[in-house]
Specification:
The complex is a heterodimer of chains A (73) and B (158).
Chain A: E1 2-3, H1 5-12, H2 16-23, H3 27-34, H4 42-52, H5 56-59, E2 60-61
Antiparallel strand pairs in A: 1-2
Helix pairs in contact in A: 2-3
Chain B: H1 11-32, E1 40-48, E2 57-65, H2 67-83, H3 92-119, H4 124-157
Antiparallel strand pairs in B: 1-2
Classes of the chains: A mainly alpha (73), B mainly alpha (158).
Amino acid sequence: MNNKVRLARAELRVTQEQLADHIGVSRQTINALEAGKYIPSTLLALKLARFFGKPVEALFFLTDEDGSDPRTL
Amino acid sequence: MKNALLFPYNARYWGWSFLLLSSISAILLVISENGPALLDVNMPALAAETIFSSQRQWFVMHKTNIADELTAVLFIIGGLLIGFAREKQEDEYTTHLRLQSLMWSVYIHYGLLILAWIFIYEFSFYWVLLTGIFMFLLIFILRLRWVMWQSYKTSNDE
């Protein structure tokens, strides 16, 4: 799974620290998440989506590594 | 994220103090082979069996020097306080790193134990059992502190 959190943050001109404070997590979490080192929980993904005013799918998306698209089954 | 099973943040300072104190005590015990006479006491034992006697005794008062018992208990409590103290900002990522470190610790600990079972024999194996008790906690703490440090360092470089 990959994400566009860094891009969305840049659009709003928000620092990692500001985003972390608003969401209630550490800056390390936002950093690891943006670097693709950590896949967030559904709760955190929803909080991020609400913060950026976007649907979750606009922030997080599956990659080829995540396997086949379930819709093709 | 609330995790009721964690100790408060400041518990880590107690943990490091206990770990340092018990490590010094362990070194002194290995060198001197005996604890101070002050710690010779009768302890209620659930089971007791000496090397030279095959007869196991149950529920007896056992005369022993409790220096090694105190050292081990202090080390284990210290290790638990360090490994399971809350981070300054505890969240799902720190929980993830902690669980990952626990997994690492299980693999390395049992990997080393397998090697020891195969390659270490007789009384030397006693030392394997003894160090094995503390090795798990030690590997866990080292791995956890390393990944936490890496995480702080990487985010500070950002």
